[in-house]
Design brief:
Annexin V, domain 1, 3 domains
Length: 344
C-alpha cells in the first residue's frame, strides 16, 4: 500500500511537469505564496520544475513579493526543527532546489566540513570529480561569497591529514590547470606510469606519482588514461588496487577512480547504501538525487536495476518514510532527462 501511494503521488507530480514548463512564473509564484506552511502543496508546485524553472521562479518571486523563497524555506526548516511538526528535511531540500547548482554545491561543500567528528570527503569528491572545471570555479566563488572562506584553503587546513584530503588537493589543482584536449598519447604514457607506480613494483602505490597525475590532468584526460590502462593491462586500474598491499590511500583512490570513470556505478552504490541503512553519510540520498536529476539519473537507475535486481524507485519507496519527504525524493528521482549543467 505504501508503494502504491508513493507511486500515485509521484505520477501526479510527473504529469504536471509538462504543464509547469509552459506555465507563467507569476502564477507559480502565487501558488507557492499561498502554500506556505503546507509542505505537501509546496512539493506539488516545486518538485516538477526543472533547475532552470526553479531559478526563474525564485527570481520572479523576489520581484513580486520582495522575499527570497529559498531563504524562506530555509527558515521554515530551522523552525521545524524546533517542534512545529513539519519535516525539517523536506523544507531544507526544497530550499536547496531553489538555488543555483553551484550555490548548492558550495553549501554542500561547507556542510562537509561541519560534520560532528569527521569531514564528509565523499561529498567533496563528488564535486571535484563530477563537475566541469568551469562549474568548480563557480562553486569556489560562491563558497567565498557566502562564507568568506577559500574552499581550497579549507581542504588544505584539514587536520589530521587524510588520503582523501591529499587527493582533493590534487583534483582542485587540476581544475585550475590549462585544460587541453584529451590525448591518447598522454593517456598511454600516464597508464604506464600508473602501472610502474602500482602493481608493477613491490610495496604500496607510489602516492606522489598518483597525486602528480591527478593534479595535472583534466577529468576527461583521466578517464581516457584509466581506459588505456584497461586496454594495455587487461583489467581495470581499480582491480589492481584490490590486493594485500591495499591501505587507506588505495581504498580512497579506488572510490575516486570509480567516481571519475563510472559515475552511474558510484552513485548507484551510494544510493543502495542509503536505502539499506548502511551509509554513514545520512545526507547522501537527497544530495545524490538532487545533483544527478536531469543529468544521468536514467543511467543510474539502469545500473541500480542491473546490479541489485530491483528498480530504484521501488527500493526507495519501500525504504523511505511515508510523508512529504519521501514523496519529494521520489519526485526528484523521476527527473531523468539530460539538460546542460555543470556536470561531466
Amino acid at each position: 500500500m505504501c508503494v502504491l501511494l508513493f507511486s500515485c503521488n509521484v505520477v501526479r507530480i510527473a504529469e504536471k511537469v509538462m504543464a509547469w514548463s509552459s506555465c507563467n512564473c507569476e502564477s507559480i509564484c502565487k501558488e507557492i505564496h499561498d502554500s506556505w506552511g503546507q509542505p505537501a502543496h509546496l512539493i506539488q508546485h516545486l518538485a516538477g520544475l526543472t533547475q532552470l524553472e526553479c531559478r526563474k521562479t525564485r527570481e520572479t518571486y523576489v520581484k513580486i513579493y520582495g522575499e527570497d523563497p529559498a531563504q524562506l524555506l530555509l527558515q521554515s526548516s530551522e523552525s521545524s526543527s524546533q517542534g512545529t511538526g513539519v519535516s525539517q528535511r523536506t523544507y531544507a531540500a526544497l530550499s536547496m532546489m531553489m538555488v543555483n547548482p553551484h550555490e548548492r554545491d558550495a553549501i554542500v561543500a561547507r556542510e562537509a566540513f561541519e560534520q560532528n567528528d569527521t569531514v564528509n570527503y565523499k561529498a567533496l569528491i563528488e564535486i571535484f570529480t563530477c563537475r566541469k572545471s568551469s562549474h568548480v570555479l563557480l562553486i569556489q566563488a560562491a563558497y567565498h561569497a557566502k562564507y568568506k572562506r577559500q574552499l581550497d584553503q579549507d581542504i588544505i587546513s584539514i587536520e589530521p591529514s587524510h588520503p582523501y584530503q591529499r587527493i582533493l588537493m590534487a583534483l582542485s589543482a587540476s581544475h585550475k590547470a590549462l585544460q587541453a584536449d584529451a590525448s591518447q598519447h598522454i593517456a598511454r604514457c600516464d597508464a604506464m606510469r600508473l602501472y610502474q607506480a602500482g602493481e608493477g613494483k613491490p610495496g604500496a602505490v607510489d602516492e606522489a606519482v598518483l597525486l602528480e597525475i591527478l593534479s595535472k590532468r583534466s577529468i576527461l584526460q583521466l578517464r581516457l588514461t584509466f581506459s588505456a590502462y584497461k586496454h594495455i593491462f587487461g583489467h581495470t586500474y581499480t582491480a589492481s588496487l584490490k590486493n594485500e598491499k591495499s591501505g587507506e590511500f588505495e581504498d580512497a583512490l579506488r572510490v575516486v577512480v570509480t567516481c571519475i570513470c563510472n559515475p552511474p556505478k558510484y552513485y548507484a552504490e551510494t544510493l543502495y547504501a542509503c536505502i539499506k541503512g548502511t551509509a554513514t553519510d545520512k545526507g547522501a540520498l537527497v544530495r545524490v538525487i538532487m545533483s544527478r536529476a536531469e543529468v544521468d539519473m536514467n543511467e543510474i537507475q539502469k545500473v541500480f536495476k542491473k546490479k541489485y535486481g530491483v528498480e530504484l524507485m521501488i527500493a526507495m519507496s519501500e525504504s523511505l518514510p511515508s510523508g512529504d519527504y519521501g514523496e519529494l525524493v521520489l519526485a526528484l528521482a523521476t527527473k531523468t532527462c539530460r539538460v546542460p549543467d555543470g556536470s561531466v
